[in-house]
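Render this sequence as a predicted structure.
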Amino acid sequence: MTLARLAGATPVTYDLEPGTWQLDVPALLQKITAQTKIVVVNSPSNPLGAVLDEATLRAVANAGPLVVSDEVYREIWYDAPPTSMLGMSGNVIVVGGMSKSHSMTGLRLGWILASEAILKPVVTAHQYIATCASAFSQTLAESILADSEWNAGWLERMRAQFRTQRDAALFAIERELGVAIDPPCGAFYAFVPVPFCESLPFAKTLATDAAVLVIPGIAFGPLGEGFVRISYAASLEQIGTGLERMGRYVRSVM
């Protein structure tokens, strides 16, 4: 939302259904006006780990305005591959990258897929923002994508590892915090309720008193209040230790 405001726009949020975190399409369509320029969709989601179904994505793709589909977590899934919005309409802009799927965050390599008409002004603007991704990161990405067998094996192993970490996190969340949440369908985050206090003071105190870092739900908008985002992109030992400390702190203040 900060980037939208810097561009002189007024961001408008839309609601998701708690628990499953699915999008209410009619409610979203009611928010679209003649002033709406872009709808941003993030599936699989950060911070929720939720994945939107194909029918929902198609409805958004054909709602009228440009649609930016943030699919940087698309290769991280557990039950079924998430649907891409690519090609669903001429208004869709797909954003992808290798930072999450191939642990290449620091190399800053990503891409945009859209129609030629949409990409032309994007390319023009990009020339004034950055020259290009580094030669090293481009060469590395080319080597990875050119070897489809190796890449498929990497992605399969990566998903299996995250599935183990997700299951360990969900077990520890229920054991230590007494909360059972639906398993995230993608990404590597759990959005966990902490109903007894505001999320920002909770996160600050948890960091100083228990040496555990979580992101307060309020950072993702007012509907995130009462939740914290927990990342399980860590070793099983770190997941267990972090949630044990978190549970000990919660029990001490309740």
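Summary. The radius of gyration is 20 Å. The mean pLDDT is 91.
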